[in-house]
Specification:
Elements (H helix, E strand, L loop, with lengths): L1 H10 L6 H8 L3 H14 L2 E5 L3 E5 L6 H7 L9 E4 L5 H10 L7 E4 L21 E7 L10 H18 L4 E3 L3 E4 L2 E13 L2 E11 L17 H5 L5 H22 L3 H10 L6 E5 L5 E8 L5 E4 L5 E4 L5 E4 L5
Parallel strand pairs: 3-4
Antiparallel strand pairs: 1-2, 4-5, 5-9, 6-7, 7-8, 8-9, 10-11, 10-14, 11-12, 12-13
The structure holds adenosine-5'-triphosphate (ATP).
């Protein structure tokens, strides 16, 4: 009930009477009073005025109730777990995947002590500033399609940042979301396969929201939403928008069997497009000009001989020849 009260208070500009809340939820006045008291204890500022009722003032308190009050998707984030701190949200989701957690279960943390990126790299996850989450999925498509989910998520995150701020978030193939050519989001997809079938897939996402300082080694290529936007943004609203976008994008992807429905949208956001790139293939690096992606999520790169090669994300990174993009 706390999350529902929060949602009602947030959506109303005026006071909501205790009586109205009682009848909405079919509970007593003292139950409403108790719930409001608990929200205040969590840090919400709720004004209570006699004969008028309750009104939410002040900022959101990022946490379980805030997210529950916002996320009303059918499955993406319908089951939600929030942790003040954890090693890695991918780890939590994988453990839950081994059990009976449902498709769409969402694991969110306010800090990760061992956040990870692709190929064993680390993801800086300081406390309080940013969004770290992993969504668990139980798809029934073939395992080789799972890596495309990373591109689906990159599309959803870029769309969510655009919706919230109006800024031109872009994508660096395959899995980084950028603002002004710097990374604001990284995505790590991992799966468990049993006899040719996907047991579960987890897609972990870190979005730099409020961080203003980054460690030396990533300073030149990392930024945050607020650093570029110049104003505070709501982490709750951003995560809500990501869940709404991802539910829509994932369902379209599954219905089509590949990235066809997202192709145009993804390619529009792709910052590599038309730019010279260096393909960091472990079998040998080469340079070419990036086009868009195909429906399997491979990046089409024209090499020096004028041939178009489709490169698969698994083992390959691309870099701009003058910088990160
Ligand atoms: P590449 O750029 O080679 O394609 P990647 O996209 O596979 O790398 P990820 O796995 O998404 O990389 O992220 C890990 C890398 O991101 C780290 O090696 C580091 O350079 C950088 N990084 C780590 N933490 C952050 C952060 N909070 N914000 C931005 N970049 C970060």
């Amino acid at each position: 009930m706390k999350a529902e009260i929060l949602a009602l208070l947030r959506e109303s500009d005026d006071y909501i009477s205790g009586q109205e809340l009682c009848s909405r939820f079919g509970v007593t006045r003292s139950a409403v009073w108790k719930a409001v008291g608990q929200l205040k204890k969590e840090g919400y500022e709720i004004e209570a005025v006699q004969n008028r009722g309750y009104k939410l003032v002040g900022a959101e308190v990022y946490g379980e109730n805030e997210l529950r009050s916002r996320i009303h998707t059918a499955w993406a984030g319908a089951e939600l777990h929030f942790y003040r701190t954890t090693g890695s949200t991918n780890l939590l989701a994988k453990q839950a995947g081994e059990g009976d957690a449902p498709h769409g279960a969402l694991f969110v943390a306010d800090e990760q002590t061992a956040g990870r990126g692709r190929r064993g790299r680390s993801w800086q996850s300081p406390q309080g500033a940013n969004i770290y989450f992993t969504i668990l999925m139980r798809p029934d498509f073939a395992p080789e399609r799972a890596s495309m989910l990373t591109l689906v998520m990159a599309h959803s995150v870029a769309c969510a940042i655009r919706r919230l701020t109006g800024m031109e978030a872009g994508i660096k193939w395959p899995n980084d979301v950028l603002l002004e050519d710097k990374k604001v989001c990284g995505i790590l997809t991992e799966m468990s396969v049993e006899r040719e079938y996907i047991h579960y897939v987890v897609c972990g996402v870190g979005i730099n929201v409020a961080s203003q300082e980054f460690p030396e080694e990533i300073r030149d290529r990392a930024t945050s939403v607020e650093a570029v936007y110049g104003q505070a943004v709501s982490k709750g609203a951003l995560l809500q928008y990501v869940m709404e976008a991802f539910e829509r994008d994932y369902d379209a992807f599954v219905a089509a069997g590949d990235l066809t429905p997202l192709l145009e949208g993804y390619n529009k956001l792709l910052v590599n497009r038309g730019r010279k790139v260096r393909v960091l293939d472990p079998r040998g690096e080469w340079e070419g000009t990036a086009g868009g992606i195909n429906s399997r999520g491979e990046l089409l790169v024209e090499n020096a001989a004028g041939e178009i090669q489709a490169i698969y994300a698994g083992e390959v990174s691309v870099r701009g020849i003058y910088g990160y993009v």
